[in-house]
Amino acid sequence: MAVGASRSTTLKKLKYSVYLIRKNTLTTVGFSIVLALFLVALLAPVIAPYPDQALGATDMSQTLLRPSWQHLFGTDEMGRDMFSRVVYGTRISLWIGTLVVGLALLIGVPLGLVAGYTGGFVDEAVMRFTDIFLSFPPLLLAIAVAALLGRSLNNAMISIAIAWWPWYTRLIRGTVVSLREKPFIEAARTIGTSPWRIMTRHLLRNSISPVIVQASLDFGSVVLTSAALSFLGLGAQPPQPEWGLILNTARNYFLVAPWYSFFPGMAMVVTVLAFNLVGDGLREVTDPKTRRL
Amino acid sequence: MPAPLLEINDLQVEFRTYEGAGVTLDLSHLHVFEGESFGLVGESGSGKSLTALAILNLIPNPPGRILRGEILFRGRDLLKLPPRAMARKRGAEIATIFQDPMSSLNPVLAVGEQVGRVLMTHKGLNRAAARARTVELFETVRMPDAESVLHKYPHELSGGMRQRVMIAMALSCEAPLLIADEATRNLDVTIQAGIIDLLAELKERTGVTVLYIASNLSVVAQLCTRMGLLYAGQIVEIGGTREVLRSPGHPYTQALLDAIPRIGDADKLLKVTEGFPPNPVALPPGCRFHPRCPVAITECSEKTPPAVEVGSGHEVYCFKAGWSN
Amino acid sequence: MWSFIVRRLASGILVIIGVSILTFMLTVIVPSDPAARWVGARANAEQLAKAREQLGLDQPVHIRYLRYVSGVIHGDLGTSIRTRQPVMRDLKTYIPATAELVLAGMLIALLVGLPLGIWSAIRKDSWIDHLCRATAVFGVSLPTFWLAMNLQVLFFRWLGWLPLGGRLSGFVEVAGMAPNITGFLLVDSLLTMNGTVFFDALKHLALPAITLAAYPIGLVAKQLRSSLLEVFNEDYVLVARAYGLPQRLVTYGYALRNALGPTITVFALCMGYSLVNTFLIEAVFNWPGLGNYTAMAVTTGDYPAIMGVTLFVAVVYVLLNMIVDVLIALDPRVRV
């Protein structure tokens, strides 16, 4: 833990962290896949052979074709090329992950910082409030909120963010509470550092690593949750090429066209897997117990 | 001269870190004779705890490994024993007391159970017999209220009591060799005194051979008849305790002694030796102490110093052995 | 210690109250009019007003909340728009099927996940370790419904070993052979010594339970492995080895006892996740349980049902967490 870390030790720790990451093959694999996914999302219009079909154009003469060289993943019941749709789906999934996790962090982290550092009544109130949210399994809360807001991808994202932020609040609050009595914080207080500066400069830097680990792992969970919502009809709406939605439609055909559900599902597995590997790797790197210096 | 109970020859242990691999222990030879108490002194990182682990053949295998050497116990090389045979020796013939009694005891088992297990494994006792014997052992180590301590958990006992549990465990199988790895390090000074007295008394009574590993010269001075000094994984001086402390032959030993504050010297500055022990990954050539040595000569940075006999049984590994005389 | 338990129970009750408020608030800000949904699209203004009065929608908010709470305490969770039955009765009908599925899944998860975690820790860095870790990571990465569908393709379409869905085969249901004592088909059929029903129910339970178990298996194996490895690094394990205690005793008697704690905690906490996964599984396998009920409620916009289920699941979740916290506190070594 970087208790009062200076520039040079931070650099050394970073180098050590990179070494640990590279040493662990699984984590490197995870990072590479994540990188590849972002590239695919970025270059979707270039990679996808039938970009207009990905966005909804149909071709009823080519329905439910098996995978072939023209259609690597086959086609769906509207004749759309599955490969293109899956590729474009990458964009949506990464977008969902980034936005939802980002939003949840934006809400949860400051709240946890303030609650943990201020203590007293504010802390109690915030913790009770988060406890209420935490008492719902996240997917359930997301379903409930999404059902009320109405069926759309944006609403789904908002509801997942609403379900997810409390975890970060609780996580960072716990770390802040254990840090706030440490001598270096007391020292900062004594020399008159403003609470704002203490929180942003000292506390945040030292408590952020478990949050980063959790956020990486959550990226995958969020993608899964949004797919679950779409599967239930609550998230993305047709003809968006969101993976969960495609799987929902695949349900009707999967016995006759198993490739229909296989490929988008595989894409999801690979994405979630990659983020899980990255999160696990980051955890090993930042956990003081496994970090043997 | 009778053969030593424990004889370590040419032992080299290597550790890999993210910076590379380094030889952290390099013992050319170390003998402990039956019935004596030998003190191995060194600062943190000098490799003393590694010595204990090496004798038990429990060096953790990723990062560390034994490159070469032999550890003869009663004439047999422990490093060549098959795992089961070695496990039988551990505890029964070589008993170890480790330095932190809180972390050395399993927090979820009662202390009586933990000692009992050792008895059941090595002496084949059943539960009831093990219990009875454990109570006897607790009484031997002067544990107040021995019967009730049997059922207590480690966190319910004080530091001194926990260490007594460890000592009881060490005595349980009447092992001929007792290794005490900084056994009093984490205890209050007054408790330390009690434990040291206990160890001295037990040694008197049972005649067990003790290898005492310490960073504290005074404890070794009190308890040990022979001692060796370890620096950067190597023995630099070895001999009878009185002789070594009265006429140290190695500059490092002299520096250690100089650093001890004396009551009469209230107005003098403490003598400090500049620098740090070397990083095992980047060892200096020749003598490992030469960068910090006040009397180093050219040879010291080129060749490894050999053992020089400066008294009966008193060896110094230095080109200028006996320089202070 | 007892004061901790009392405090925990008290805070648990507070949380449940908070949950009920949250759930109620969600019903209030419903965008569409429940009264309109109740009477249907072709009602006139008078019927609408009457429905509104019947449903108590004309009262101020806090009165509605109190009515809601008193209703809940009396077991009245409103009436489902879709089934026209009291939601409470619907819950009672569908809970046993879900409970059976969840219990079966969790049992499989423990039976598979624990050994997996132990083996991969003991044989660290060997091929077994890599296999177990790969399984664990896949377990937590697989989308439940996708796994469900692919298992169906594998076991039903290609191998023909297991049925597609439902709890019992058609002929068994029609013949009315299914006993109903506890609602748990496996238990009931054993109690009535009815072999046909037992095996039929078992075949139907297999795939859903395995699908459900995938995520907890991954979680348990991963957590147990890392806890065990941490414990293996502890001093007292070194001491145990230094005293020649046999490896099996060290692993199971010494290390496992310490490592199981966090693993069980993690397992209990993932029950909440599994509960919701169950909903998805029920949808795919057409399992007549709470999840299926909820899925249909979601598709038809049956808000009372959705809220009733949400409240129920949340309360169960809170109770589970409370039990876990209390169990942890009962451990004499834990200082609270």
Instruction: From the 3D structure, determine the CATH topology of chain A.
Output: MetI-like fold
Shape call of chain B: globular
Individual helix count of chain A: 12
* Strand segment count of chain A: 0
- Give the helix level of chain B as a range of percent: 25-40%
Number of E strands of chain B: 12
CATH superfamily of chain A: MetI-like
Distance between the termini of chain A: 12 Å
- H and E order of chain A: HHHHHHHHHHHH
Could you tell me the radius of gyration of chain B in angstroms? 21 Å
What fraction of residues of chain B sit in β-strands? 15-25%
**How far do the termini of chain B sit from each other?**
29 Å
Short description:
By secondary structure, chain A is an all-alpha fold.
Structure characterization notes:
The complex is a heterotrimer of chains A (293), B (325) and C (336). Chain A has helices at residues 7-23, 25-42, 44-47, 51-54, 82-118, 120-134, 138-149, 153-179, 183-190, 195-231, 243-250, 258-286. Chain A has 293 residues and is mainly alpha-helical. Chain A has one domain (23-51, 70-290): MetI-like fold. The radius of gyration of chain A is 22 Å and the shape is elongated. Chain B has 325 residues and is α/β, with parallel strands linked by helices. Chain B has 2 domains: 4-93 and 175-317, 3-Layer(aba) Sandwich (Rossmann fold); 103-174, no CATH class. In chain B, 31% of the residues lie in helices and 25% in strands. In chain B, the strands form 2 sheets. In chain B, strands 6-7-8-3-9-10-12-11 form an 8-stranded mixed beta sheet, with helices on both faces. A 4-stranded antiparallel beta sheet of chain B has the order 2-1-4-5. The longest helix of chain B has 18 residues, at 189-206. The relative contact order of chain B is 0.14. The model of chain B has no long low-confidence stretch (mean pLDDT 87). By secondary structure, chain C is an all-alpha fold. Chain C has a domain at 93-300: Orthogonal Bundle (MetI-like fold). Chain C has 14 helices and no strands. Chain C has helices at 2-28, 34-39, 45-54, 61-73, 87-122, 127-141, 144-158, 170-174, 185-191, 195-232, 235-242, 247-285, 290-300, 303-330. In chain C, helix 10 crosses helix 12. The radius of gyration of chain C is 24 Å and the shape is globular. The model of chain C has no long low-confidence stretch (mean pLDDT 79). The interface between A and C is large, with 45 and 52 residues.
